[in-house]
Amino acid sequence: MKKFKFKIRGNNYEVEIGEISKNTIQIEVNGTEYLVEVEEDVKESKTPVLKRAPINTHKVAQKGADTVTTFTVKSPLPGNIMQLFVQNGSEVKVGDKLLIYEAMKMENTITAEKDGKIANLKVQVGDTVLQDVVLMEII
């Protein structure tokens, strides 16, 4: 719920906007609930919502040994690589910074979601990447 304070003709009102459906909005004004009808459909926000992609893992067999799980780090949005904190062979722990990239005019930090060693680093500072491009692998 969003809360607002209004002053209308010298009177103070505390308004909470609740559930919004196609042409009705549930609001509460100074503790009293109202169902307000809107003449036009309420337009949904066009702001994209970032969702964490599912963990991308696959098994890679080693010669004569146990299998190793490889975690693939992909770009969640198109953007530009601004800074790298790792290189091939770097040891990382969960939460360590891997890189910073710019997407939608915002700097985003990608962190390690798995303990391991960086393998197959595919980007450099200044690279432009598309969404879901493999940036590196953690083994």
Q: Estimate the mean pLDDT confidence.
A: 81
pLDDT below 50 for ≥5 consecutive residues: which ranges?
none
How many helical stretches? 0
**Going by CATH, what is the homologous superfamily of the largest domain?**
RNA polymerase II/Efflux pump adaptor protein, barrel-sandwich hybrid domain
Query: What is the third-level CATH name, the topology of the largest domain?
Result: OB fold (Dihydrolipoamide Acetyltransferase, E2P)
Determine the N-to-C terminus distance. 43 Å
Fraction in helix? under 10%
Arrangement of strands in the largest sheet: 5-6-13-11-8
Characterize the largest beta sheet: strand count, sense, and whether it forms a barrel.
5 strands, antiparallel
Level-2 CATH architecture of the largest domain: Beta Barrel
Shape: elongated
Share of β-strand residues: over 45%
Q: How would you classify the quaternary structure?
A: single chain
SS content category: mainly beta
- Structurally, the number of domains stands at 2
Top CATH class of the largest domain: Mainly Beta
